[in-house]
């Protein structure tokens, strides 16, 4: 199956930082600021949602590689957003540019690779 995904499509995922999203709660640090794993999850969510509307109901994507820098802390209560931009689509391989911001500016950046999968076949293979 051919996937005609256009380079340059974007999606922005947003969330308000809650205590459950902090490094102290994730166990990735000891302070009450937006955790790097939480930022990465928001970035992956943005990338997934960038292409999901263009796939049929049999297909989905899975994360393969994440390369990010968490540039500055964000306190609880602040709004964060991540924009994913599709920069490469080669067969089932998708490459995204990522940028995360809070109300004061850029907090993270990087890239992410996802692969298109047939959801049913993926789970059948996994459950063998």
State the helical fraction.
Answer: 10-25%
Identify the strand order in the major beta sheet: 1-3-4-5-2
The helix-strand sequence is EHHEEEEH
Q: From the alpha-carbon coordinates, what is the Rg to the nearest angstrom?
A: 16 Å
Beta-strand percentage range: 35-45%
Please, could you describe this protein's structure?
The protein has one domain (10-126): Roll (Thiol Ester Dehydrase, Chain A), CATH 3.10.129. It has three helices and five strands. It has helices at residues 23-26, 36-51, 119-126; strands at 10-16, 59-70, 79-90, 93-102, 105-118. The chain has a five-stranded antiparallel β-sheet. A hairpin with a 2-residue loop joins strand 4 (93-102) and strand 5 (105-118). It starts with 9 loop residues before the first strand and ends with a helix.
Secondary structure blueprint with pairings:
Blueprint: E1 10-16, H1 23-26, H2 36-51, E2 59-70, E3 79-90, E4 93-102, E5 105-118, H3 119-126
Antiparallel strand pairs: 1-3, 2-5, 3-4, 4-5
Keywords:
128 residues, alpha+beta, Thiol Ester Dehydrase, Chain A, five-stranded antiparallel sheet, 3 helices, 22% helix, globular
Question: How is this structure best summarized?
Answer:
The chain is of the alpha+beta class and 128 residues long.
């Amino acid at each position: 199956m051919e996937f005609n995904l256009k380079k340059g499509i974007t999606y922005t995922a947003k969330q308000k930082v809650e205590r459950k999203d902090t490094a102290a709660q994730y166990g990735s640090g000891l302070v009450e600021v937006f955790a790097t794993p939480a930022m990465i999850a928001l970035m992956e969510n943005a990338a997934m949602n960038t292409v999901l509307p263009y796939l049929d109901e049999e297909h989905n994507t899975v994360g393969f590689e994440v390369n990010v820098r968490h540039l500055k802390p964000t306190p609880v209560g602040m709004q964060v957003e991540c924009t994913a931009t599709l920069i490469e689509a080669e067969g089932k391989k998708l490459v995204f540019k990522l940028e995360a911001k809070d109300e004061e500016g850029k907090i993270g950046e990087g890239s992410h690779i996802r692969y298109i999968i047939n959801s049913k076949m993926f789970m059948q293979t996994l459950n063998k």
